[in-house]
Design a protein that fits this description.
Number of helices: 10
Helix content: 40-55%
Strand order of the largest sheet: 1-4-5-8
Mean pLDDT: 94
Distance between the termini: 36 Å
Largest sheet: 4 strands, mixed
Structural class: alpha+beta
Length: 390
């Protein structure tokens, strides 16, 4: 994996050293799906391995055992790019530890942070982020799940679906409506242990790039008063703040997949003989490789600009992260498709690296806001900023 981009001024020496160390560690791990274990077992093992090696500490702040005073977007992005290059499942489990616990980092009480975040960093507890519903995915304001205040706590009723780590998580950061307000108002967040009475895994969902995914049912699910995360009614803003941090890291994961596809394509172009010469000797191949490499650099610049603006300028990056996520995931889809094409029939054989990449990239264009939603975010932010000095 090329690391020339780590010399860009977005990064500090610590980020470059981190990337080199993580790449050496992940390169020594078994290849994806090579050990015959089921998906749940492999995911649990990845969390355990990432935690024991210290990499999950990047998902929490220094007060909770992490390396930085606050979550460092560049570190999260470098980690996801590096892990995704080698193994999509390793990247997925790393990302979900951060996303699943991110709301606790941002709004948790001292007691909530002390209970949940050190185990997340150690790989001893698996986290999940429960926001989407059957009729409230991209449109979070359409949320129907309810949380009713009772004398000794809260009672949650409703459904969450497309929940990553559903079925293997130890706890869920759950968002539910706590007032009759409509739209984004009146939504609150709760920490719900996986063994809470009334919480059931209603369905496990299988997708083309296997990972734990489920529909959750909450039926008179009671949690204590201190399960409320942050202020009552502030859940929508908390969810958006969490996504703003981790959306840029989705772009970084797409970069990792795209870089691996380019490397596979380069190797194929050099080694495959066709019509008496190497595939790479054809100008049409060279032009395609040029497009792939240029798209990767363009997406990387957007990705690490967003991370740098948040880390160094302490700037709100809703638009920049949306741009990065949109361009990186769409570009990666095109790059990986081109790599499959260079492999010909071999490119669609189950188990080939490019075939795995082809399945893994597709979901990134949807989760944490589909491409179409990113365009709406960017347009809205442009209009909002239109009256500001630019």
């Amino acid at each position: 994996m090329a690391r020339d981009h780590l010399d860009w001024p977005f990064f500090e020496p610590a980020h470059r050293a981190f990337a080199i160390d993580l790449a050496a560690w992940i390169a020594g791990r078994p290849a994806a799906g090579s050990d015959g274990r089921d998906v749940d077992a492999r995911c649990r093992d990845w969390v355990r391995a990432l935690g024991q090696a210290g990499w999950l500490k990047c998902c929490v702040e220094s007060a909770d055992g992490g390396p930085h005073p606050r979550l460092d977007s560049r570190t999260l992005c470098v980690a996801r790019e590096t892990l995704a290059y080698h193994d999509g499942m390793a990247d997925f489990m790393f990302a979900m530890q951060g996303l699943g616990s991110g709301a606790i980092t941002l709004a948790g009480s001292a007691a909530q942070r002390a209970r949940w975040l050190p185990p997340v960093a150690e790989g001893a507890a698996i986290a999940a982020f429960a926001l989407s519903e059957p009729d409230a995915g991209s449109d979070v304001g359409a949320m129907q799940m309810r949380a009713k205040r009772e004398r000794d706590g809260w009672m949650l009723d409703g459904c969450k679906t497309w929940i990553s780590n559903g079925g293997i998580a130890d706890f869920y950061c759950v968002f539910a409506r706590t007032s009759e307000d409509t739209g984004a108002r009146g939504i609150s967040a709760f920490i719900v242990p996986a063994d809470a009475p009334g919480l059931a895994i209603a369905e496990r969902i299988e997708v083309i790039a296997p990972h734990p995914l489920a529909r959750l049912e909450f039926r008179n699910c009671r949690v204590p008063v201190d399960a409320l995360l942050g202020e009552e009614g502030a859940g929508f803003k908390l969810a958006m703040r969490t996504l703003d941090i981790f959306r840029a890291s989705v772009a970084a994961a797409a970069l990792g997949l795209a870089r691996r596809a380019l490397d596979e394509a380069l190797q194929r172009a050099r080694s495959r003989r066709i019509f008496g010469q190497a595939l790479g000797d054809f100008q049409i191949t060279q032009a395609k490789l040029a497009d792939m490499a240029s798209a990767i650099d363009a997406a990387a610049l957007l990705t690490y600009r967003a991370a740098w603006l948040r880390d160094v300028r302490d700037q709100r990056t809703t638009m920049e992260a949306a741009m990065a996520k949109m361009v990186a995931t769409e570009s990666a889809q095109t790059i990986i498709d081109a790599a499959v094409q260079m492999f010909g029939g071999q490119g669609v054989v189950s188990g080939e690296t490019v075939e795995r990449l082809y399945r893994e990239i597709r979901a990134l264009r949807i989760y944490e806001g589909a491409t179409e939603v990113q365009k709406l975010i960017i347009g809205r932010e442009l209009l909002r900023r239109g009256g500001e000095d630019r």
